[in-house]
Amino acid sequence: MSLSPYLYFNGQCEEAFQFYEKCLSAKITFMLTYEASGMAAQVPAEWTKKILHAGLASRDGVLEGCDAMPGQYRKPESFCVMFRPKAAAEADRIFNALAEGGTVQIPIAETFWALRFGMLVDRFGVPWLVNYEKPAAENVS
Fewer CB within 10 Å, N side or C side of the chain? Predict the structure, then answer.
C-alpha cells in the first residue's frame, strides 16, 4: 500500500510545487493544467492555466495536489503534512525553507522524542511537521 498527501490550492498549486521542489530537494514529475487536460470548458477562462494535477517525488514519497475548482477551495484544517528527514541538518534546512513567508507555530528544536521537531504553516496555508526522531533506544524509558 502507498499513501500520498493530496493538497488543494486556491490557484497557487504551480507556485507551491515549484517551492516544494526546491525546499524538499524533490522533483516535479507531473504537472497538468485544466487547459491541457481537455477540461478547459468546465472552468472559467481565467482558470484554464491552473493545475488539474501535480506530482512531486522525493526519495521517500510522493506529494500530489491541484488547484481546487473555483469556489470550492477550503482552508486546510486539522491535519499536517509530516516530513521525516534523515539528519538534523536536513531537518533544520527544510524547516527554515518551508517557513519562508509562512508562520512558525513551534520553532525547530530538540524535544523528548526527537532530535529536531518543528511545526509551521507555509506561505500557501499548508501545515507541516518536520520530525527527525531520536533513535528508538533513546525513546524507551
Answer: N
Q: Are β-strands 103-109 and 114-121 bridged in parallel, bridged antiparallel, or unpaired?
A: antiparallel
Q: Is the pTM of this model over 0.85?
A: yes
Question: Is the pLDDT confidence value at 22 over 60?
Answer: yes
CA pair distance 110, 117, nearest whole angstrom: 6
Strand-pair partners of 132: 116
Tell me which CATH homologous superfamily contains domain 1-74: 2,3-Dihydroxybiphenyl 1,2-Dioxygenase, domain 1 (3.10.180.10)
Burial of 33 (0-12, 13-18, 19+ CB in 10 A): buried
What CATH number is given for 75-141 in this structure?
3.30.720.110
